[in-house]
Input
Amino acid sequence: MASIINASPSNGIVQTADGSGVLKCQANGVTTNALAWVNFNGTTSPGTIRSAYNVGSVTKNGTGDYTVNFTNALTDTNYVVLSASEGGGSVGNPPYQRGNYPITSTSNVRLTFLTYNAGSFVDPTYCCAAIFGN
Output
């Protein structure tokens, strides 16, 4: 659960709270803010978190392969992950985020990064992800 502030056309502003520390801002019951986000160093093991919200740790599974572990579980697995990276590739062959493994967990999400041209796994210096959902 979370602390929820919901703007409803029929009920006005409605607040609920459970003490988890996760804040959900909603419009008509749809969450509009990120439920978790992280900026971490992908060259360290485990991934060293520079800054985060609702992320407790980053596990390095192998080169360019990370699991982002949420501090408080998400409500369901119907969430969206946006990610970006920088460093670790070469000029003309920068890293990119390949796409997440199938999202099957409310407690974590797995990210993988590859070089653009070569398609080989790479450890970016800067790995960032934001998670949106309900």
